[in-house]
Amino acid sequence: MAAVMFVGITLLFLDFTGVIHAWLSWMAKVQFLPAVMALNVVVVIALAVLTLVFGRIYCSVICPLGVLQDVLARLRRKKNKYSYSPEVRWLRYPVLALFVIAGVVGVGSLFQLLAPYSSFGRIATMLLQPLWQLGNNALAMVAERADSYAFYSVDVWMRSLPVFIIALLTLVVLAVLAWRGGRTYCNTVCPVGTVLSLLARYSWLKVRFDTDKCRNCSLCSKNCKASCIDYKTHTVDYSRCVVCGNCVSSCKFGALRYAGAAGANGAAGATGGNGTAGAAGKVDGSKRSFLLASALVSTAALAQKKEKVMDGGLAELEDKVAPERQTPLVPPGALSLQNMAQRCTGCQLCVSECPNGVLRPSTDLLHLMQPVMSYERGYCRPECTRCSDVCPAGAIKPLDEVEKSSIQIGHAVFIKKNCVAITDGVECGNCARHCPAGAIEMVPLDADDEEGPYVPAVNEQACIGCGACEYVCPARPFSAIMVEGHEVHKNI
Description:
Mean pLDDT: 86
Number of strands: 10
Number of helices: 23
Largest sheet: 2 strands, antiparallel
Distance between the termini: 47 Å
Low-confidence stretches: 265-315
């Protein structure tokens, strides 16, 4: 089950076609923190009940960062490599308090840095997706030679160097901690793990000792990646136990069982008055293993035409430079900068799924890793609702095409000194021709000279801020027209 969840969520971040999302989007929505931010009461209650019944099974099966720690820990082949250690309370609960305070006061960068699902999202988007895209491009090259269009090439580019570095450092820290202590990060730093541990103490199903059978061999402690089993006192710290089952499967004497209170009593009773265990008291390891069959979903990537700014092949075009916007641009459906700051977990799912190269992580310190828009590589197409479709945290509300086309996220601003009609004396009008909202009209620079250059005039009331004008503007390196964001979006 953990493998299925881990592979599915990873594919959500790697996929750039949007096909996998139609099948597996629920995997992102059942993550604890996104469900809390989206006020998804059903999921939050379900996860709480799951924890009260089974213990912290969320951490070992559903959370992708938890499963990643197990994957990294398995790279160390040494057997019996763990040992019991007491709970690090002085670190766990202050980190949880810091996490909650950061979320309440709006320090998004700290909040997202500690969020486990977001940490995994950054690793998948910044480190794994480029490798996935390079592999796709290699297949596209091979397919093209075979006159096949099953794959299409995509641009591989650095969305944000600071966030890339953060993702890399997160992976290194996780690898070191998992290599040395298994679930150290999960049980000392992760705020979601700490919250669930408060419920796990009272779970019905727990790993329980049968002291009559225990020989104090310490195999359970040596195989506990949560370091929560003290074989000397026959106790388990249920707040840190992630119900992986390693201790039960490693016990050679059947002294451990994963059972409810009644099951534990039954196990003790099965030993009889003379302390000898009956056949019913033996643990059958095969009954604890799950045989999972997962259907392979084969999908053909949809061929798409990439829109590029061309000059007729006469010269190499200079790359555009992002303008300095007074107010950041956030996607339609975000409602406002405040809503984005309060609800976004910085998981990068919208960034990884954006087909137009518009979204990238913010470099602003307070809102680091939250998505912002820029139009150097494309523009926000009115018919595309991918980011609102994939957001699991409610930071970008679901929209249809009609709703999106009527939401104003900003307005275009003409920058006279950059316009090629003035600097180069040529006719242009690209911005007016490509504006999907019809908000730009070409007018004479000098009202008394109709033979002179024509420049764009923007109707701010009709502009939706999609950035088509900024993207197609031929001026380099800075566009002659740019979009300034609005703090609060409105319908027009």
